[in-house]
C-alpha cells in the first residue's frame, strides 16, 4: 500500500540509451509509462471522452 501513497520518483532521460514504452487501454481510458534502464521517465493517462468511447 505504501507505493500507492508515495509520490513517484522520475529520472531524467538519456537520449543515448534505449527507451521502453508500456501502454494499455480500456473502454474508459488510456495509460502509458515511458521507462529507461528499468526506471520511470514519465507517466501518462487520461479518460476517454464520450465520442472517443463510441469510436
Give the CA-based shape. elongated
Largest sheet: 3 strands, antiparallel
Residue stretches low in confidence (pLDDT < 50, at least 5 long) are none
Alpha carbon gap, first and last residue: 36 Å
Average predicted local confidence, pLDDT: 91
Helical percent range? 10-25%
Quantity of strands, as a count = 3
- Report strand %: 35-45%
Number of domains: 1
Q: Order of strands across the widest beta sheet? A: 1-2-3
Radius of gyration: 14 Å
Main structural class: mainly beta
Number of helices: 2
Elements, N to C (H/E)? HEEEH
Protein name: ABC transporter C family member 12-like
Pfam family, one: RT_RNaseH_2
Organism: Trifolium medium
Domain Reverse transcriptase/retrotransposon-derived protein RNase H-like: 2-55
Write structural notes for this entry.
This is ABC transporter C family member 12-like. InterPro entries: DNA/RNA_pol_sf, RT_RNaseH_2. It comes from Trifolium medium. This protein is mainly β and 55 residues long. It has one domain. 15% of the residues lie in helices and 42% in strands. The protein contains two helices and three strands. The chain has a three-stranded antiparallel β-sheet with strand order 1-2-3, with no helix packed on it. The radius of gyration is 14 Å and the shape is elongated. The mean pLDDT is 91.
